[in-house]
Amino acid sequence: MRRLPDHRHLPATRGNNNVLDKSAPTSSVRASGPLSGFRIVEFAGIGPGPFACMMLADMGADVVTLDRVGAKKSMKSVAGRGRKVIELDLKDKAAIAQVLDLLASADALVEGFRPGVMERLGLGPEMVLARNPKLVYGRMTGWGQEGPLANAAGHDINYISITGALAAIGPKEAPVPPLNLVGDFGGGALYLVVGVLAALLEASRSGKGQVVDAAMCDGAASLMSFFFDMTTIGRWTEGRNQNFLDGGAHFYGVYECACGHFVSIGSIEPQFYALLRQHAGLTDADFDAQMDRKAWPALKEKLKAVFKSKTREDWCKIMEGTDICFAPVLTMSEATQHPHMVARQVFVERHGVKQPAPAPRFSRTPSAVREPEGAEIAAVTKAWQAAK
Fold first, then answer.
1. Cis peptide bond N-terminal to 366, omega within 30
2. Range(s) for CATH 3.30.1540.10 in the chain?
3. Mind listing the pLDDT tens digit of every residue in the chain (388 residues)?
4. Record's InterPro entries (predicted)?
5. Active site residue 184
6. Which listed residue (155, 279, 338, 351) is catalytic?
7. Could you tell me where in the chain the CATH 3.40.50.10540 domains are found?
8. Is residue 155 annotated as a catalytic residue, yes or no?
């Protein structure tokens, strides 16, 4: 596997190093990823849309972000890396005409407004696809383009609430939001990326574009497929903290150590469970009943006491790297220093900000972190038209 380039020493742009500068030179990091040559127009937003476009830009796509006048995007933004940023007033009809000219040479569009907003701007799918029939039109919303809730406001916590996901996460007393990873980024951004890439692949064969309706509630529900399957075969019950993957089982969970830090274990398979017992000294015959749900609460209490007897560092020396399925529970700052993460260069540094490197990795066309830069729409449109 080719090593990712070290981006810690990219040349600084002229002017304020924290704000996009239209006079800044193009980033010295070349677009070498598998999407190099693909042109994507992003309508600025927050959350899953920008994250999806960050992934596309990391993979080499030429992503142009259309933002409001005076937005002054920070160069330090993780999700905003790798873009050309153009500031426009989309309420200006002349600006809309310029956007349509730009889209005529684009491969894909990504927008995250509420249903109907793009249509009112004169940039809906019908209008845009008339100018560019091969364009992939990616739409990122919480509730989708239609349905009783389509026009309602919402956030990740709401979108995952109606999928069965939130009800399954947390202690018995109450559900706990799993950050905004399940709806916004897992069910939203990643499904949008998959949808856009699939539609681009199909368009290369058919010559026809289409709309990709990526709704966070749809994606979060799709992520629950495994658990619907497990429920069907009787291996999952609708209740928190009583299943083998939700903290109910003593062999799959998080335990506090003597130092106040935590470790995680996932010793599901019998051979891994045997190693857990061996390394933790679990000689009590009660631990023979690994899959007896009725025994889980008592065994969990016993295991709590065992892990509380040593520090996290002690347990790492005993268990890390074995087939117990063990790992220390690290904070974000600790994660950047973990030897495995350092060896794989999972994190890079830009402008003093530690951040995840591009993922996944490609052996022949590696992704790269590129700097954002200010741009003018006329210049980008001319360059895209010349490249067609």
1. no
2. 252-342
3. 223 333 322 223 223 334 444 444 344 566 789 999 999 999 999 999 999 999 999 999 999 999 999 887 787 899 999 999 999 999 999 999 999 999 999 999 999 999 999 999 999 999 999 999 999 999 999 999 999 999 999 999 999 999 999 999 999 999 999 999 999 999 999 999 999 999 999 999 999 999 999 999 999 999 999 999 999 999 999 999 999 999 999 999 999 999 999 999 999 999 999 999 999 999 999 999 999 999 999 999 999 999 999 999 999 999 999 999 999 999 999 999 999 999 999 999 999 999 999 999 999 999 999 999 999 999 999 999 998 7
4. CoA-transferase_III (IPR050509), CoA-Trfase_fam_III (IPR003673), CoA-Trfase_III_dom3_sf (IPR044855), CoA-Trfase_III_dom_1_sf (IPR023606)
5. yes
6. 155
7. 39-225+345-387
8. yes
CA distance 242 to 264: 17
Q: Please name the residue that has the structure tokens 């347990």.
A: 315
* CATH T-level assignment (fold) for domain 252-342: formyl-coa transferase, domain 3 (3.30.1540)
Between CA 275 and CA 180 the distance in angstroms is 34
Separation CA 286–CA 91 (nearest Å): 70
Q: Cα separation of 127 and 244, whole Å? A: 51
Q: What is the helix (H) or strand (E) element at residue 299, kind and residue range?
A: helix 296-307
> Taking a C-beta distance cutoff of 8 angstroms, is the pair 80, 372 a contact?
yes
Q: Domain 39-225+345-387: which topology?
A: Rossmann fold (3.40.50)
